[in-house]
Amino acid sequence: MPPSSLEILMHITYPASSARLKATERFEAIYPTLKEVALAGATGSKAMKQVAQQILTFAVQAAGEDIPKLSREAASISIWCLTQNADCYKQWDKIYLENLQASVAILKRLSEEWKELSVKLAPFDPLRETLKNFRLKNKNAMGDGDPAHQALYRDGDKYCKAILGKVSRGNGCMKAMAFAVIAVAAGAVIMSSNAESWDWKKLSVFVNSQFPS
């Protein structure tokens, strides 16, 4: 299923309440299966990365619509795009301000469902840099006199800050776990009297390289 078909299907399945039809229920029933087909593919492949970028364009726009179910579904698909292609972060960064309401919806979902989503989003470097860029954009745009925009900038900054905190704590826990593994390995080596065969300095450098601060 091409990305354009998924876009149409998503809007048909999650219309405004006033636009619901008898057929809407049928689309709701088959939507999960068709979405699975549309998002199927080899993670990390060139084709899948291209699909993710194409989908992100309309998913972000849909996430900003005032239709709660559509916005939530579009935010979920936008996050899926981020898990498939790190370049999607750059794409999102470019359209952040012009899709502010949508971006806040995506950030809110990331923050609220971090425990479930974090595994899919690791490593966090692209996310961390994007969130820092968002915070800078929010800060620079705070002079906007529109109260509605001001509220969105504040909410966006709140979620960015919350996610950055979770990313930092996550890296700290992973690094602590890595050093715990080293400690266990050290004990095993000492017990086997082969400590001379280990290059501890190189091992420490390797671990630190896997978990940048």
State the gist of this model.
With 213 residues, the chain is mainly α. Helix content is 78%, strand content 0%.
Overview of the molecule:
This protein has one domain (3-210). It has 213 residues and is mainly alpha-helical. It is built from ten helices and no strands. The chain is globular. The two termini are 41 Å apart. Helix 1 (3-13) packs parallel to helix 3 (46-63), helix 3 (46-63) packs parallel to helix 5 and helix 9 (147-192) packs antiparallel against helix 10 (200-210). InterPro entries: TMEM214.
List low-confidence stretches. 172-193
pLDDT averaged residue by residue: 83
Shape: globular
Number of strands: 0
Helix % is over 70%
Q: Whole-number radius of gyration? A: 22 Å
Query: What is the helix tally?
Result: 10
* Separation of the first and last Cα atoms: 41 Å
Major sheet attributes? none
Count of spatially separate domains: 1
Strand content: under 5%
Pfam family, one: TMEM214
What descriptors fit this protein?
213 residues, mainly alpha
Layout of SSEs?
Elements: H1 3-13, H2 22-38, H3 46-63, H4 68-84, H5 87-95, H6 100-112, H7 114-121, H8 125-141, H9 147-192, H10 200-210
